[in-house]
Amino acid sequence: MDSVFSESAYQALIQDIFRRFPSVQQGGFTPGTYKPGLDGMKAFDQALGHPSAAFRSVHIAGTNGKGSVANMLASALTGVGYKTALFTSPHLLDFRERMRIGGFMIPKRFVFDFLTEWLPWISEHSLSFFEITTGLAFSWFASENVDIAIIETGLGGRLDSTNIITPVLSVVTTIGLDHCALLGDSLEEIAREKAGIFKAGVNALIGESVPETQQVFNDIAWMYCPLQYAQKLHPRLWNRHKQIIQNMDLQAPVQERNLRTVLAALDLLRPDWPLLDQDEKVEDAIIHTARNMDFHGRWERLSTHPLVIADIGHNPQAMKYNFAALEKMLQGEEHSILTIVYGIMADKDLDSIIPMMPRNATYIFCSPDSERALPAGEILRKYLDFRRSSQIPGPERAFSAGSVRQAVQMAIQLSKGTEGTVIYIGGSAYVVAEALPLFRGLPALKA
């Protein structure tokens, strides 16, 4: 393979990396893609010269909301003048989305040079895709001398590759039943895994908790660190939260909860980060998080005529909020027709999600191009079986499509000649990832 950088050499190298080290997005949580534990990451970090210790960081775990919280924090810190890095997952269109500084993705040249140099070591030690990207991100952040990095866990916390850092603040957003086969099948077990990011003497912040998880957090934190609950705090700028929510370009139904977590986190950071005292800049940066960070797939409006909304929420906890928000939209005067383009991974809890689905919607089920995806016909069968067994009245307006593209095209076609249509695209990040280019001219799908 050509070791001299060019666009073609870069693309060939990236294809080779994805082939040899498939991501969880590609292959699911298999032994070849998911390697819990820190030994491999610690060895890689040591070989790289310990870049994880070269910058200060905020570490974020949680079942839902951690991506939004991470991006809002990064936007706020960038907006007041700090050189701020951001590491998140999954990506939607380009894996470089995972690694940003000031909202800009890691340069292709840095990726190429890093992988060219370290690929023999990576191969010899059989690293996972996530370990590779974590080492890549940390090395870039260190080389750029960032002031602070916002680091989102990939899965769980205790055994996550990112957990080699010692942050200045640990944040757990929410706890829900997701990835149960890997993290535990109760809220308490999952909370214990997420709380694995707590570090001795480092402030920890919980975005939202219930009695079962709060007891776990309390039991772990008293041995290690100061613990705060955002729900119990009245953070600075909270008196303006309604205005901020109204103007935010992140319009997911749960952003009020996420905003409170972000404002509480900024309060905990503020003593050592005095530029955060610039309230107007903080507020403006949070309001424009999606624009500033090029952040997508969180209640994102892809079209206005018809109104098309895409959201990567995928587990019962997230879908409960999203479906409720869609039904609330139909109660207004502006929108009266709801079409849902929906796909899901086979390892997700579809049986718990189907009863939440709005009953007055038209459904177009689809399967994204992933081995993990549940076939569209299987989703359709389960949905219709539920309606019939529950004796739900009304027409069974449900179809299956051969691809995400076909499902979106069908939804757009159904909307023509009607007013007040809302099209919701979701159920999985993979569905949203395939839908986004259709509204960006790659190629264009005219609404």
CATH topology of the largest domain: UDP-N-acetylmuramoyl-L-alanine:D-glutamate ligase
Low-confidence stretches: 25-31, 442-447
CATH homologous superfamily caption of the largest domain: Mur-like, catalytic domain
CATH class of the largest domain: Alpha Beta
N/C terminus separation: 42 Å
Strand order of the largest sheet: 4-3-2-5-1-6-7-8
What percentage of residues falls in helices of 4 or more residues?
A: 40-55%
Question: Based on helices, strands and strand pairing, what is the structural class?
Answer: alpha/beta
Please tell me how large the radius of gyration is.
22 Å
Largest sheet: 8 strands, mixed
Compute the number of structural domains: 2
Mean pLDDT: 90
Q: Count helical runs.
A: 18
Overall body shape: globular
CATH architectural label of the largest domain: 3-Layer(aba) Sandwich
The strand count comes to 14
Description of the molecule:
With 447 residues, the chain is α/β, with parallel strands linked by helices. It has two domains: 7-293, 3-Layer(aba) Sandwich (UDP-N-acetylmuramoyl-L-alanine:D-glutamate ligase); 300-439, Mur ligase, C-terminal domain (Protein-Tyrosine Phosphatase, Chain A), CATH 3.90.190. Helix content is 42%, strand content 13%. The strands form two sheets. An eight-stranded mixed beta sheet has the order 4-3-2-5-1-6-7-8, with helices on both faces. A six-stranded mixed beta sheet has the order 9-10-14-11-12-13, sandwiched between helices. It starts with 6 loop residues before the first helix and ends in a 12-residue tail after the last helix.
